[in-house]
Amino acid sequence: MRRFGMGLWAIGLLMTAASAPPAVAQLQRNAIAAPADQPYRFRHSGLTIPAMLEGMPRGRIEQFGTDELDVFANYERGSDAITLYVYRNVSGAVPVWFDRASASIETRRDMYGIATAAGPATAFAPPGQSVASGLMGAWSVSKPPYRGTGLALLPMGDWLVKVRYSSATLDGAGIAARLPAILSALTWPTGLAAAAPAQPIADCTTPLDFPKKAKLVRDEKSNMMSGLLGGMLQSMASDKLAEKDTPDADAQKPATWCRDPGPSPVGAVYRRDAALDSYLLAFSDAGRGAWVAPDMSGLLLGKKGGKRWSVALVDMAETSNYPPLTALPRPAEVLALVQQPAISTTRTWGNKTITINGGAMTGRH
What we know:
It is a single chain. The protein is an alpha+beta fold. It is built from seven helices and 22 strands. It has helices at about 95-105, 110, 170-185, 220-235, 295-300, 330-335, 360, and strands spanning about 15, 30, 40, 50, 50-55, 55-65, 70-75, 80-90, 115, 120-125, 135-140, 150-155, 160-165, 200-205, 255-260, 270, 280, 290-295, 310-315, 320-325, 345, 355. It starts with 13 loop residues before the first strand and ends with a helix. Residues about 1-25 and about 240-250 have low confidence and may be disordered.
């Protein structure tokens, strides 16, 4: 435990009677003060963006939430617009979030009409890097004022960078030709570790099997163990975000992701290495989601505990753990569960603490 600068005596463990469930909803937007005519360096990631980009002046710089963990900047000229997002890499991987961002373009009929891909999505090496760890795509669109829109998403250490470009004059092919120059106009931090190669996501060949209804485990002691173990793993893993794309991922083996073909009430379900007993429910294209995986406390209890599944709601600064379930839950069951109080919450940014919510385990919340 010393490697991570903490022990059980220093983990900041707090006992609370109740805690409000995290909201799976739109986050509050807050402006960040920055001179409009000067380059701006993002506080944590080190990326610097210019005052002008592709002949467009930079407008407001804003953030979702607080502490500049999910920041974006807008550039506009007439109907042309570039939006640049920088957010903490807390779950999934580049292919997952590129797939969600692509889906948001292809389903926004109100904004783009029919979006037709200018070609297949392509992997590329980010500026200053040698590994093709980013993904890029572009579309011609049918609804004025736009003719085309494009997307690039790439890793930058512990952060993800997303660039969206929509144009009233360029079609999809024209956008695709301009995206590399836009990325090169940014000032990137140096000395970053090489990221894993990226490739576009395809459907999993075998869909997940949900054999029965998942029921909550009602044992207070084992649930407390589940909340504590989950919190400890997440706290330790948060120091290795650039190397681990799941709490227990092997840093030496880059994951291959696929999209589960089954239905989901929101977003989509993604599986690491086509796993049949775990998945990530990605809510949108903003890096947040819910992990579903075999529960560590059930494994430790052996036959006495039986196999269980844990659900963890991942946000930019914290991860919330929920009572274990008796079977692999369907996405709709996961969404219902995360609207309830968590059994523990782990701060993964700043002062790292684990908060145990005793009320959630006993039903007194």
